[in-house]
Structure formats: C-alpha cells, structure tokens
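Consider the following assembly input.
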Amino acid sequence: MRLASKDLLGIEQLSVEEINLILDTAAAFKEISTREVKKAPTLRGKTVITLFYEPSTRTRTSFEIAAKRLSADTINISASTSSVVKGETLIDTAKNLEAMNPDIVVIRHSASGAPHLLARLVRHSIINAGDGAHEHPTQALLDMFTIREKRGRIAGLQIAIVGDIAHSRVARSNIHGLTKMGAKVTVAGPPMMMPRGIDKLGVGVSHSINEAIKGADIIMMLRVQFERQKEQIFPSIREYATYFGLNRENVKLAKKDVIVMHPGPVNRGVEIAPDVADGPYSVILDQVTNGVAVRMALLYLLAGGKYETSPQGREDH
Amino acid sequence: MRLLLRGGRIIDPSQQLDDQMDLLIEGKAIAGLGKDLTRAGGESDLTILELEGKLVVPGLIDMHTHLREPGFEYKETVRTGSLAAAAGGFTSIACMPNTDPVNDNRSVTEFILRKAKECGVVNVYPVAALSKSSEGAVITEFADLRDAGAVAFSDDGKSVMNSGLVRRALEYAHTLGMPVISHCEDMDLAAGGAANEGAVATRLGLRGIPNIAEDLMVGRDIGIAEYTGTAIHIAHVSTAGAVRLIREAKKRDVKVTAEAAPHHFTLTDEALQDYDTNAKVNPPLRTLADVNAVREGLKDGTLDAIASDHAPHSTLEKDVEFDYAANGMIGLETSLALSLRLVEEGVLTLNQLVARMSTNPARILKIPRGTLQVGADADVTVIDPNEGWTVDARTFQSRSKNTPFNGWRLRGRALVTIVGGDIKYRAR
C-alpha cells in the first residue's frame, strides 16, 4: 500500500488505512534511533529541504534528524536567512527550489494554506510542518503513534484537547485524526479561544477544563499561543493558569491511568503545572522521541515509497 | 443613421412593457417602439437587426465597479473596464473611488470622466470618496464633486466607523440630492478576517469575519438614515441579518436601498475549499442560509439592485498565500449570466431581473437611464438568453482574470450592447 498523494498537507485528506500505514511504518523505523549506529541507507541520494517561515526548534530538528538517519541530504532554509527578506514571493522561492530538484520540501508557514499553494505548483513532495491555524499533520501523527503505543489502540478512547483551539493547528490535525480513528474527542477552552463551528468537525465542546477531562483517557494540553494573538484576548496569564490550566488537583478527575500530552513548547505554570508536565502521567518526551520515527516513516513513504513494502517487509498491515 | 431592432422581446419595467416589438433608434435616441416599425420610415439608411427569440432591454447598469485608474492601471483601466462592461451587456457603470490618488476631489473625478470620454465605450459614472483620502475623518467637497460629475459618495472598501461622520455625510448629501453608498463592516469585529466566520473558516484555519460585522453596521446606517430622514444605499449585502434589517426598514418607509453581488447569491464559503484566492472577497462568501436570504431579498425587492463589485486584481495580489491575497473578483463579464440563473431557477422573473440590473440602479443613482422610452438615450442591451458558454477568463476584456467562475458552464449572454445609439459590442 502507498499514500494516495505525493504530499502530506493535512490529516483531513488521509484515510484510516493511510494513517495506519504511516503509524505501522513508524513503528518499524523507531528501532533505528536506538541503534549504536543510527543510520539506514534508505534515502541515500534523496534531498530534503526544510523551508521554515516561522521559528521552530523541535519540529525542524526532528525532521532533520529523521532525514539524516535515513541518509538523505538535508538543507535548512529559514525565513530570516533566505531571499524572503528580499521580498521574493513564496511561489518564486518554491520554483527556485524546485529547479534544484529536491525530493521533498518540508514547509512551515504562518499563513494557512501556504503548503497547498506550493503543492499545486511543484513536482516534488510537500510536507506541511504547520500552516497558520490550519494543520500540523506530523504532530497529530506522532500524537496518535504515542497514544497507540501507550494504550494499544485509539478507538474508543476518551480524549480531551484543552487550550487555545482557535489558534491551534495541532488541535485541528488531532481532531481530524483522532475522530477518524474512532476516539471520542472533547475540546475545551475559554470562548474567545473556541472557533465557531468547531463542533462540525465531530467533537464535543466545553468551556470547562474540569468537565472536559473528567473520565478522560488522554489529556492533550495546548500551548496558549499568546504570540499568535494580534490583541490580548484573555485577561491575564494568571487567570488562564487558574481556570484553564492542568494541575495536580484537577488531573485527578481523569482516569487513573490518564496520559497527559503536550505538543510543546510548554509554558510551564501557564497551561500545565510543572509537576504535571514532569509527573508520571506525562508522555511529553515520548512524543518528541516518536516524532523522529513518524517523520522517518513519512519521508520514506513519500520519497522512497516506490518500494511497495515497508523496510522490514511487513506487508501484513 | 437609423437602427432597427426587429422582432425581439422587449422588456422594460420603466414602462411595464413585455412584448414582441420593434425598437427604432435614430441618432443617439430611441425614436420608436411598436409593432412593424419598418413600414413607418422606409428602409433607406436603415440597419436592421433581426432579433426574434432575443431579449431587448434597457441598457444594463452596474452601479458598483472598480476601474483601478488612476494608480493601478496594471489591474484595469477605464478603457479595459469599459470594454469589459460592454462585453458583459452593461451600457453604464459606476466606479468606486479607491484609486491612487483616491477620487476625493474634482481633478480625479474629471480625469476619470475624460478617460471615459476618450475611449467612448460606455457611460462611466464616478463615485467620489465620502471622506478625504477615504480615511474616515473629514467629508469631501460634496457640492464641488457633484458639479464635477460624481454621482454618489462612498468610502467603499473601507467601512466608515465614525458614526458622526456618517450622519454629517448623509445630511449634507441629502440636501444636494446625492446618494451615499455604504460599505458596512464593523472593523473591530472583522479585524484580520480572511473568510466568513463559521465551520469552513474554522476547518481551513482562517480567521473569520462574522455576519454581525455587517449586520451591526447596516443597522447603524439604517438608524442614522431614519433619524435624519435621509437616504442610504447599502453596498454588496451578503448576510441574512442585513437582508432582514433592510426589509424591516423599508416597511417603516426608511429611505434605504440595497444591492447584492452575483457571487453572494451564487457561491458559499465552501468555494474557499482549496484556498482559492479568487474566491476571497469582502464581504466574504457566506453560508447557504445567507445565499438563500440574499436571493429572497432580490425576489421580494428588499434588495433593489444587482451590482457586480467588479474588483480586478493581478497575479501579484492573487498568486500569494490566502491570508495575504487581496479581496475581490472581477464580475462585469459574468454578472448577467449568473443573474440569469436566478430566472432559470424561478427566483426572479425576467422583468424583475431587468429592474434589478437597469431600472433600479438608474433610479438610485438618479441618472436618466434604465428606460427604453421614446426620446431617451438609446442605451440598449440585446441578450441571447439561450446561448450556452463556458467561462474562460483568458478571453475576457478585463485586464485582470481573477474569477472563481472559470470553467463554469453558463447560459445567456449579451449579444449586442448599444450605447447612445452606437453598437459598442457585438458577440462574434
């Protein structure tokens, strides 16, 4: 089985089978990162460019490590150092990169739909590493991978996503993915952070964190993206932490074996109390580890996907 | 020079006419209207158009266009916009003042009129800015602009947030007998928005412009017009709430008129699905409930006019990230066919369609057009209601190609456009 599209633009377009393919492939790749020599020749001779119009440490590093562990050549371009500052349009930048024959361009951009614009214009694969408030598909895939790894399944789980849903691409991608995989998802946050019509995506909506996390199998806390808000829409960080933060007390409302997740970077003491972020429920660092495996799987499926089998010949999935 | 339009179906709401008749044009004016006009004057020096099965209507008027000149000639000029108008069946167009410089003084108004006269295609009526530089602070010289040839005042493209300024403008314009056209958008509620607020924008991760951003300002403008006893024209109505407010105001005899654009009665925000910047427009494409309300408003007369809000943009403004793309789409060459769909779907009668696209815009702008009465300027549009065609912006007269209707199969098209007795456009 192969992915239907040359690009990964969002989770919305993926089928359940495709999501399972990616997660299964990632499971096979995870082992490479535990080896003494963390390198496989799978993508030797392939070129992966990361084109980031927004600052990122985790996602960009994760993609680069994933590419390098598969022996691809990687080039990183960030908005601050590229021709972007000279006023070149996104399309011109993309066309110029295309002229150098890369295999995959990983793009992050503050404008929703920017990766879609490129995908229509270039021959090579585009991976969306986050576009505006739209999607961040690899984050959702690594989240689903982590949930599946910890719980053995996604279907039937009760999952609360808490925070600034309106500005969160992580929320949208996870909503698409988790509902497709059969989870019961509730989003929670103050009304000014809740986008109109979010219920149409098949989720429950709450304005109380306690209500949302009650009996939850998984709690996904979102970063409160104050840097994405053009004006201050919430009274204070203090009020947010008190009424919408996850702490040692309210986490008890969830299932005893609840898993607490966060896409990072964590605002300690704002959306999540330090002792919860570092506590026994937290899988935040597992998410980061799994991110590399998931991105290796994607790079493989998109660039090396001409092989009909996954790396270990596991065609039974 | 005499021109006889023979055997067409003449529809003229200004005279309650709908009949198969002949129309005779002599020089610049309409000289006769009746059965078998041929015998009346003999056939010497007479050009005859055989129009059986075609519609012959008062020249269509698009009261809301952007011609981009001066300042943005790479998008459109008075000439290319006029050619697009004629090809779309329009004999008169009003052009909005958001040029560079803004049409906020006599010299810009005169410049536009001179350009229009030079190219001599359709009647061009400049709408002057309501406030200096359209900055919403000080009103422009209404009387001088009127004398220069402006037909209305508007800060279209920007909403006038200062209610005191709107009041002064309405009261002053009223004493001059001049219409004011209002772009209704609460800028605080709409701030940063790129699409209609709702499920589609949420799914696409786009910042929303809520319906109430429009509704509140329509309500405010109606309130000011009602309180001061003045008239107001609401541009490009896109929401169910605005339609309801205007309907109720008309019942109270408030002097409010309103227009709707074809894209607002044809498309919903689902058209943004693939981040198509050609579907990015302000007010934004709304939901099906709004589309249906706009159609209902056109049907019951709450909305007086159909106006395209023809807004040309080049690839510089459109081939970019959705958030950064300019608002607007061209409309002059698709407006008639999209409006004819309303007739096909039983929303409007042909008579109502002509009223919305000719009679009423003339009445609102107070220009002596929109009629086929004997003696009137011979502005006539001949429509082939049955011609099927496929939208291909590359073939359009407009300098810009930004339309989301590319590839659409439409029915009905202007066959001949006659302005002041001269044939300015004839379909090949």
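The radius of gyration of chain A is 19 Å. Ask yourself how this observation constrains the way the partners meet.
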